[in-house]
C-alpha cells in the first residue's frame, strides 16, 4: 500500500470512529483552563494557573457566601476573643483526607507555619507580622493568637487565600518540591486522578466529602486551552462545558445561543472584585500635580472605554473600592465626569498650557500587550486636551518590572483585585509603607498619613458597619486626591453549556454544587 | 569501506561540532534572558507578596547571586547532565521536556511529511506545464499561503472545519469526554489533522515553489533534450531525469527549514491546545522560567542539528558526486 493510500484509509477510519462516538454521559464537566497548572499545592502559591484546579480539591477553614459573609467549612464554628486578638476555631470531626487519614488541627497549624506564612505571597504579606502563633489544644481546636486586634481574619481563610494541606504528606519534606505537589491529597469535593502536562487534569467526585449530597458531577476535567478564542469554539462544539473567561468580542454571539448560558461574576479563584487601574507616577511631573491628575481623569471617557474596550464586562469605577464589594463600597465620593473644557481649564491653571505644537505635555503609557487597545483609545481621547500619549507595550512580566520594581514609568497599568475585604487587596495599593520594589504594591508612590492611619484603624476593628464607615471616609479622601485612575469595576463573563446549572461563580470552589440542568 | 569510514568521520565531526553549539546556546540564552526585564518570582507571587517574600524566593532559587556566579553554577550543573529545576512546574526540566517533546515531534513530523509529499507534487505539476492555469493557480495560492501567519490560518481552519462544518475537533490531542485514557491512534489522528495542516501550509508552499523553480530549471538542461532524443516521453524524461536532479536543492531547503517547523509549532500549539514544546516555551518565557527556557532551546537545537545531519545523508545518497 502506498503512503498516500495508507493515509487516506487511516483518515477514513478516523472519520468513521468520530461519527459513531457516543453522546456525553451525564456527570462529566469539562472546564477550559488557560494555562498549564504545572503543580498542585495551593498553600505555596496564589497562581491563577494552579488555584482554579486546587480550589476544587482542597478546603479552607472558613468559606464565603455570595455576599462575602463567612460560613463554616473545615471549621464548624469559631469565637473571637480579647478584642480581636484571639480566634478559636472548632474543627469538623467528620473530615478525612482523600487518602483516608483524618483531618486534625495539626494540619491547620502545619499549613500556616510551614506553607502559607512562608510561601503564599498574599497570606504571608498580610499575616506574618501580626499573627503571633497558632496553638492546637486538641485535635479539633485551633487557636490563632494575634499581636494586635485583627478584624479581617475570617475573610482570608477561604480556599483561595488559605487552603489547608495534609501535614502527614509534607512533614519533613521541602513543601515546594514534595511529591504530593504533583498528586495532591485534599479534603475537598473532588479528588485528584490524573494530570498530563499541557493537556488536562482529571478529578473525580469525592464520595466521602463532608458536605452531604455534593458534588453532583462524577468527573471534573480541566482541559488546557491557551487560546481564549479556541476555548470559546470548543464550548460551542460541546468539547468543553465551562469557559471561565470569555473574550469580549465573542460575548454578543454567545448570548444569542440557547445551548450556552453567559453569566457574570466579580469573584472566583483568579481574584475577587478586581479593578483595572491606571497608575500615574505621582513622585514626578506631570502627575505629581493633583490638578493634572484630576484633569487627566476627566479627559478619559470611561463609559466609552468600558463599552468599547472591555465590551461592557464591568462598570466605570468611581473610586478605589469596587462597587461589587457592596459592604465596603461608598458612592459618596468626589466625581470626575468626562468634561474636556474643564480638564483644559485645570491644566491651564496648573501651568501646563498648550505649546506651539498644541501639545501640553507628553507621557508614556507602559502596559502589558493585552492592554494595547486601551492605550490606543486613551491616546485618541487625550489628544483632545493636548496630552501626547506614547504607548509602550511590553510583555506582562517586563511591564510589571518597569512599573513596580524599577519605577521607570510615567503611567502604568494594573488589575488590582480588592479581595473579599479591603484589607486584603485595597490597603496595599495606597499605604505609604508599601512603596517598595514589589509588584502590585503602591506603584504610584502615593503618600498620605491620614490614609495610612485610617487603613490601620479599619484593620483593628471587628464590627463591619464601623469598618465600612472608615472605608467610606477613605474613599472620599482618595477620590479627592486621585492617586490612581480607576477605570473599570470588572464583572467578568463566564460561559457554560446550558445543560449544567449550579455554578458557584463567586467562589474558588465553583464546581462544588454543579449539576445537570433538569436532573431530578 | 572508505564510504563507511568517511561517514563515521562525518558523524563524529558533526557530534564534536555540537559541543561549542551547546555552550554557545546556553551562554547566549543565559545572557539574553537575564538582560531582558522580568523576574520568575513575579509569576510565583501572583498579585501578592512583600519585600521579604521576594527576598526569600530569590535566595531559594539562587536568583540573588551575581549573574556570573549563576552562570558558572548553571554550566557546572549542565556538564553533569542536570539541566535545572523549573520554577513553575517544581520539577526537573528534563522530566517536563521528556513529556512534551513527543507531541511536538508528532506535529512537526506530520507537517514535514505532508509538506514534502504534497509540496513536491504541486511543484512538479506546476513545472510540467508552465503558465498553464493549474500552474498559475498553484503559484498564486502558494504565495498567499507562504505569507499568511500560521496562527491566523489555524483560526480560519478551526472556524471552517470545526465550527461551521463540525468535522474535526477544536483542539487538544484526544477526546476527554468519556475517559482521559488514550483512545487510540484513530482519535489521535483525528485531533492531529487541523494542527498539522495549519502548520504545514506555509512550509508546503515553500516546498512547492522551490520544487517548481528547480524542476523548471532542470527541464531546460541539455540532458533533457538528449533524453527526448533517445525517445523518452516528456513525462518520463521529467520524472526519471529532471525531478531527481531538481530534488537536491529541495532537500536542502526543506531540511534546513525543519527548525522553522519545530519552532513555528509554538503558535499552532497555542491555537489548538496541542501540548508540545512550543506552547511550553511560550509559557516558560512569560513566566521567566529560565532553566526551562534554556533547556527547550537546547532541545530544539538538537532536533534541528539532527534534521541537518539527515539532510546531508540524504543528499549524498541522492547525489553520487557528494563525498563525505
Brief summary:
The complex is a heterodimer of chains A (520) and B (324). Chain A has 520 residues and is an alpha+beta fold. Chain A has three domains: 11-57 and 188-265 and 493-516, 3-Layer(aba) Sandwich (D-Maltodextrin-Binding Protein, domain 2); 62-170, Alpha-Beta Complex (Dipeptide-binding Protein, domain 1), CATH 3.90.76.10; 273-490, Dipeptide-binding Protein, Domain 3 (Dipeptide-binding Protein, domain 3).
Structure description:
- Chain A is an alpha+beta fold and 520 residues long.
- Chain A folds into three domains: 149 residues, D-Maltodextrin-Binding Protein, domain 2; 109 residues, Dipeptide-binding Protein, Domain 1 (Dipeptide-binding Protein, domain 1, Alpha-Beta Complex), CATH 3.90.76; 218 residues, Dipeptide-binding Protein, Domain 3 (Dipeptide-binding Protein, domain 3, Roll), CATH 3.10.105.10.
- Helix content of chain A is 29%, strand content 22%.
- Chain A has 16 helices and 21 strands.
- A four-stranded mixed sheet of chain A has the order 1-10-9-8, with no helix packed on it. A four-stranded antiparallel sheet of chain A has the order 4-5-7-6, with helices on one face.
- In chain A, α3 packs across α4 and α15 runs antiparallel to α16.
- Chain A is globular.
- The N terminus of chain A is likely disordered.
- Chain B is mainly α and 324 residues long.
- Chain B has a domain of 177 residues: Orthogonal Bundle (MetI-like fold), CATH 1.10.3720.
- Chain B has 13 helices and no strands.
- The model of chain B has no long low-confidence stretch (mean pLDDT 86).
- Chains A and B meet through α1, α4, β8, β10 and α6 of A and α2, α3, α5, α7 and α8 of B.
Which key phrases capture this entry?
heterodimer, A: 520 residues, alpha+beta, D-Maltodextrin-Binding Protein, domain 2, Dipeptide-binding Protein, domain 3, four-stranded mixed sheet, globular, B: 324 residues, mainly alpha, 13 helices
Amino acid at each position: 500500500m502506498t503512503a498516500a493510500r495508507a493515509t487516506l484509509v487511516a483518515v477514513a477510519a478516523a472519520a468513521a470512529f468520530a461519527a459513531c462516538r457516543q453522546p456525553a454521559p451525564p456527570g462529566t464537566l469539562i472546564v477550559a483552563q488557560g494555562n498549564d497548572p504545572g503543580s498542585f499545592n495551593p498553600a505555596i502559591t496564589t497562581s491563577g494557573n494552579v488555584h482554579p484546579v486546587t480550589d476544587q480539591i482542597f478546603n479552607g477553614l472558613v468559606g464565603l457566601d455570595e455576599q462575602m459573609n463567612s460560613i463554616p467549612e473545615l471549621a464548624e464554628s469559631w469565637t473571637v476573643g480579647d478584642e480581636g486578638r484571639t480566634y478559636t476555631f472548632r474543627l469538623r470531626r467528620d473530615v478525612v483526607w482523600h487518602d483516608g487519614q483524618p483531618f486534625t488541627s495539626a494540619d491547620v497549624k502545619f499549613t500556616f507555619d510551614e506553607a502559607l506564612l512562608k510561601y503564599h505571597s498574599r497570606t504571608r504579606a498580610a499575616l506574618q507580622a501580626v499573627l503571633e502563633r497558632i496553638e492546637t489544644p486538641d485535635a479539633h481546636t485551633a487557636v490563632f493568637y494575634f499581636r494586635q486586634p485583627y478584624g479581617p481574619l475570617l475573610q482570608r481563610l477561604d480556599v483561595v487565600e488559605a487552603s489547608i494541606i495534609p501535614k502527614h504528606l509534607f512533614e519533613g519534606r521541602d513543601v515546594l518540591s514534595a511529591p504530593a505537589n504533583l498528586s495532591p491529597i485534599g479534603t475537598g469535593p473532588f479528588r485528584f486522578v490524573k494530570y498530563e502536562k499541557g493537556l488536562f487534569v482529571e478529578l473525580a467526585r469525592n464520595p466521602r466529602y463532608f458536605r452531604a449530597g455534593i458534588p453532583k458531577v462524577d468527573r471534573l476535567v480541566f482541559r488546557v486551552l491557551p487560546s481564549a478564542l479556541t476555548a470559546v469554539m470548543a464550548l460551542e462544539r460541546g468539547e468543553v462545558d465551562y469557559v471561565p473567561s470569555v473574550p469580549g468580542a465573542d460575548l454578543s454571539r454567545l448570548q444569542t445561543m440557547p445551548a450556552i448560558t453567559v453569566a457574570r461574576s466579580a469573584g472566583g479563584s483568579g481574584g475577587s472584585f478586581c479593578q483595572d487601574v491606571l497608575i500615574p507616577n505621582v513622585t514626578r511631573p506631570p502627575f505629581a500635580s493633583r490638578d493634572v491628575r484630576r484633569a487627566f481623569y476627566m479627559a478619559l471617557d470611561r463609559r466609552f472605554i468600558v463599552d468599547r474596550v472591555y465590551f461592557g464586562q464591568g462598570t466605570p469605577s468611581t473610586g478605589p473600592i469596587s462597587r461589587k464589594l457592596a459592604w465596603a463600597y461608598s458612592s459618596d465620593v468626589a466625581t470626575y465626569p468626562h468634561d474636556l473644557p474643564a480638564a483644559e481649564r485645570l491644566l491651564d491653571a496648573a501651568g501646563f498650557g498648550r505649546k506651539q505644537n498644541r501639545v501640553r505635555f507628553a507621557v508614556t503609557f507602559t502596559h502589558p500587550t493585552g492592554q494595547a487597545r486601551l492605550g490606543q483609545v486613551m491616546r485618541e481621547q487625550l489628544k483632545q486636551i493636548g496630552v501626547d500619549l506614547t504607548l509602550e507595550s511590553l510583555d506582562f512580566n517586563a511591564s510589571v518590572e518597569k512599573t513596580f520594581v524599577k519605577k521607570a514609568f510615567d503611567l502604568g497599568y494594573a488589575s488590582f483585585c480588592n479581595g473579599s475585604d479591603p484589607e486584603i487587596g485595597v490597603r496595599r495599593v495606597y499605604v505609604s509603607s508599601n512603596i517598595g520594589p514589589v509588584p502590585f504594591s503602591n506603584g504610584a508612590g502615593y503618600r498620605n498619613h491620614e490614609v495610612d492611619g485610617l487603613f490601620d484603624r479599619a484593620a483593628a476593628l471587628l464590627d463591619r458597619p464601623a469598618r465600612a464607615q472608615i472605608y467610606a471616609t477613605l474613599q472620599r479622601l482618595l477620590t479627592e486626591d486621585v492617586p490612581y485612575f480607576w477605570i473599570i469595576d470588572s464583572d467578568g463573563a463566564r460561559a457554560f453549556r446550558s445543560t449544567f446549572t449550579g455554578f458557584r461563580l463567586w467562589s474558588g470552589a465553583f464546581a462544588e454544587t454543579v449539576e445537570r440542568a433538569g436532573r431530578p | 569501506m572508505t564510504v563507511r569510514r568517511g561517514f563515521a568521520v562525518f558523524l563524529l565531526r558533526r557530534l564534536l561540532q555540537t559541543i561549542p553549539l551547546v555552550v554557545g546556546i546556553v551562554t547566549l540564552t543565559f545572557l539574553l534572558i537575564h538582560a531582558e526585564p522580568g523576574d520568575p518570582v513575579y509569576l510565583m507571587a501572583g498579585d501578592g507578596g512583600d519585600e521579604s517574600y521576594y527576598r526569600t524566593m530569590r535566595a531559594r532559587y539562587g536568583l540573588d547571586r551575581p549573574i556570573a556566579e549563576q552562570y558558572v553554577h548553571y554550566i557546572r550543573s549542565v556538564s553533569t547532565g542536570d539541566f535545572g529545576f523549573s520554577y513553575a512546574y517544581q520539577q526537573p526540566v528534563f522530566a517536563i521536556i521528556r513529556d512534551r517533546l513527543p507531541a511536538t515531534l508528532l506535529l512537526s513530523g506530520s507537517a514535514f511529511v505532508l509538506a514534502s509529499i504534497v509540496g513536491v507534487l504541486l511543484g512538479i505539476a506546476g513545472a510540467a506545464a508552465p503558465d498553464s492555469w493549474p500552474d498559475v493557480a498553484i503559484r498564486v495560492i502558494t504565495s498567499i499561503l507562504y505569507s499568511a501567519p500560521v496562527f491566523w490560518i489555524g483560526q480560519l481552519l478551526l472556524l471552517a472545519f470545526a465550527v461551521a462544518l463540525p468535522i474535526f475537533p477544536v483542539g487538544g490531542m484526544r477526546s476527554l469526554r468519556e475517559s482521559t485514557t488514550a483512545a487510540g491512534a484513530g482519535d489521535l489522528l483525528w485531533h492531529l489533522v487541523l494542527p498539522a495542516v495549519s502548520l504545514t501550509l506555509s512550509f508546503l508552499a515553500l516546498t512547492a515553489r522551490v520544487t517548481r523553480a528547480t524542476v523548471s530549471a532542470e527541464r531546460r538542461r541539455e540532458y533533457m533534450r538528449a533524453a527526448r532524443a533517445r525517445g523518452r516521453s516528456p513525462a518520463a524524461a521529467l520524472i526519471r531525469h529532471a525531478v531527481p536532479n531538481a530534488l537536491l536543492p529541495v532537500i536542502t531547503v526543506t531540511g534546513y527549514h525543519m527548525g522553522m517547523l519545530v519552532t513555528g509549532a509554538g503558535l499552532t500549539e497555542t491555537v489548538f491546545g496541542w501540548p508540545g514544546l512550543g506552547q511550553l516555551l511560550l509559557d516558560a518565557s512569560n513566566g521567566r522560567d529560565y532553566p526551562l527556557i534554556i533547556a527547550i532551546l537546547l532541545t530544539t537545537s538538537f532536533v534541528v542539528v539532527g534534521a541537518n545531519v539527515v539532510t546531508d545523508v540524504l543528499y549524498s545518497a541522492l547525489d553520487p558526486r557528494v563525498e563525505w
